[in-house]
Amino acid sequence: MIWPRNSCLRLLLLLYILFSCQLGSAYDIVRDYSGSTFFDRWNFFGNWDNLTLGDVWWLSKADAFAQGLTYVNSAGNAIMKVDNMHNVVSGQKRNSVRITSQDIYDVGSLWIIDLKHIPFGCSVWPAFWTKGYQDQWPVGGEIDIIEAINLMPNNQMALHTTPGCNHVPEAQQYQSGATTQTDCSLSSGCTVLELKENSLYTGLAAAGGGVWATQFDVSGIFIWFWSRPNVPASISATTASTGVDLSDWGPPSASYPATSCNIPEYFSAQNLVLDITLCGQWAGLSNLYFPSCGSGTGTCYADSVVGPGSNFNDAYFEISYIRAYTTGAPAPTPNALVSISTSAPTGLPTSLLAPSKPTASSLFFPGSAEGRQANMMLAIAAILLVGFFNLWL
């Protein structure tokens, strides 16, 4: 570039470059899970649900594909479902799927999931969540982005941690959801109920699906939901190789500022997890199951899991994409993604992380737009000082 000799022109050019940068993407993409390769970078559980004691057998990858419980449909969307084709007799478990990302993501990450359909039905317990990749739960933390049971009409979000992490008092909760529990170390976690319409059940699919975004920042953890008609333009415009800007997102549904929970202390690098279980330690509780689903057999298992597969025709995820972003890496092209290397020790999951030393993002919510504006003004002031200094030379 040839710089103008006139100092004022040089200053104007610097300002133009600054504003151009500020209009660029706030987060750079590091991984896109979509289309025919959606399932390539996930590990399948391949065992019965010994974690939440659900009445399912989570299949291996080979079995899940062979039995038609995972596939990519004609629209290019990933399907992950409960077996709805076979009769289950008493004493057997129903087949389902749980997958965990091979990639791990540290503080400084952002995840977006675009869903056309979320599993629902009596006994059904779907979840999209993250967990500490090397830790014994709840060490390393857990972020529940999407979770519900049975016929719940609204999504529930939560954090799970060891003692000491709490949701901030109501007056400091800059969020649209309703807090129902503040202690993140309880078995329920610190929970927030989605108040926007069509986050689950039949309403989600009827509205054309929806989008969730989760910001995993040293300044806090923030979760957004938008029904299809309300998805921000900045997200709708993204592709598998472009970054994303948060400035038009508005308040999150759940806001967990770091003022009452030190994020790097309570959360390690995270795996992404998608699963569907049945009954178990939440959906199968009699006080939660029977008000909307019970028919008098005595248990969630006998009432729903045993019997024909048609009970589970709505128990499936249809996923347009999951995308992971970071504040700490250049945006790779789709071809470059396959050649990204890491220094992870042999045997550990591949890591596509933000810088290992967490630094506060100026884009954290609340105040992401304000933070960017403040940074812009500081940079402008610095350039003006340089410009005026050059005038004296």
From TrEMBL:
Residues 1-26 form the signal peptide. CDD domains: GH16_fungal_Lam16A_glucanase (cd02181). The chain crosses the membrane at residues 374-392. PROSITE patterns: GH16_2, PROKAR_LIPOPROTEIN. Keywords: Membrane, Signal, Transmembrane, Transmembrane helix. This is GH16 domain-containing protein. It comes from Armillaria gallica. GO terms for biological process: glucan catabolic process. InterPro entries: Beta-glucanase-like, ConA-like_dom_sf, Glycosyl_Hydrlase_16. Residues 31-330 form the GH16 domain. GO terms for molecular function: hydrolase activity, hydrolyzing O-glycosyl compounds.
